[in-house]
Write a structure and sequence with these properties.
The protein is α+β, with helices and mostly antiparallel strands and 334 residues long. The chain is built from 7 helices and 17 strands. 27% of the residues are buried.
Length: 334
């Protein structure tokens, strides 16, 4: 209850808003307060000053004011560690549900910055130093728990450098978001394909001809990984298969055996990955529309995008924006 009231008061006081482009942390964006150690030092200095006044200790005055000046300089350095820092959000790659999305944030300044902490409202945090006179990228990780758009929300950038006596912070809320695909099921047999002349039915037993290897992409089925090539130090590669010329597949949501919607979408996701891994031409049928048969990485991403945004409130907004940048691996403005 207390945390909720504190968060509501913070939202009302600082009026968070979504920002675009590069943000410069000017004086009006930076807030500073003493930490617990800072309040304790302040109380100690007051007691020391009262003692010096009571006993007329000349060296006590020197020590008291020396410590007070040290605290003031610590406050100035904490503020300087954030002042005039330039920040902008980068592009985030799409992930599957259950994976960790990484949002790149770029920091730039003419001066080095130390012990910066980037934290979200769920208290996930990243600690880093930003070097001088160069663009420094920090990846902020967020765990994807559902399909659709994943946003960073409001982030807090703070520092307690150099002595931990003062807490200086600023708020960042960029229009950065990441597309989260449904988590594919372990196995989903492909439907039978048709050649243009109506012949050429294919089975889903996986008896296609081997056509070569390609680089592993997140979501590829484990049985298709070339483990022998991996053992030789060639990295993760996936076996590719060929299908008869002209053969196409129609992947339909209603054909999935699962009973719930999320299960059907996960089944369809695996089928898209499997069809692409085998080099087949495939189309996608959803209740809200269809995608014609095609193949290639662009078609794969288009199908996964439609699956990820199916039956979501923001799907209509996304469809309107597809006339522009249709890449599902990029961040979009809300």
């Amino acid at each position: 209850m207390l945390a909720t009231l504190k968060q509501s008061f913070s939202n009302w006081l600082f009026r968070p808003k979504v920002e675009h482009g590069t943000v410069v942390l000017t004086q009006r964006r930076i807030f500073i307060l003493p930490t617990r150690q800072g309040w304790a030092l302040g109380l100690l200095l007051i007691l020391m000053l009262l003692g010096c006044i009571n006993y007329n200790l000349s060296l006590g005055y020197v020590l008291t004011f020396l410590l007070a000046m040290m605290a003031v300089m610590s406050m100035l350095h904490a503020f300087r560690n954030l002042a005039h820092l330039e920040v902008h959000a980068g592009r985030s790659d799409a992930v599957f549900n259950g994976q960790t999305a990484r949002f790149p944030l770029h920091f730039g300044s003419k001066l080095p910055r130390y012990q910066l902490v980037l934290r979200d409202e769920n208290r996930n945090s990243v600690i880093f130093d930003s070097p001088a006179s160069q663009d420094y990228a920090v990846e902020f990780p967020l765990h994807a728990t559902r399909r659709g758009w994943l946003e960073t929300g409001r982030l807090t950038l703070y520092t307690e450098f150099p002595l931990g006596l003062f807490h200086a912070w600023s708020y960042l809320h960029f229009d950065a978001r990441c597309l989260v695909y449904p988590r594919p099921v372990p196995d989903a047999p492909l439907p039978a394909g048709n050649a243009p002349d109506g012949a050429g039915k294919r089975s889903s037993a996986g008896d296609d001809d081997f056509a070569g290897l390609r680089t592993y992409v997140a979501g590829d089925a484990l049985p298709h990984i070339a483990w022998k090539a991996y053992a030789r130090g060639l990295g993760l590669q996936v076996k590719q298969f060929t299908a008869p010329v002209g053969e196409t597949l129609r992947l339909n949501l209603n054909d999935a055996p699962e009973t719930d919607l999320e299960g059907k979408l996960s089944h369809l996701t695996r089928q898209v990955l499997e069809a692409e891994a085998r080099g087949l031409r495939y189309g996608l049928s959803l209740p809200d529309g269809e995608l014609p048969a095609d193949s290639g990485s662009a078609h794969r991403e288009a199908c996964l995008r439609r699956i990820a945004l199916f039956d979501l409130e923001c799907a209509g907004m996304t469809a309107l924006s597809e006339g522009g940048d249709t890449s599902p691996h990029s961040t979009h403005s809300v």
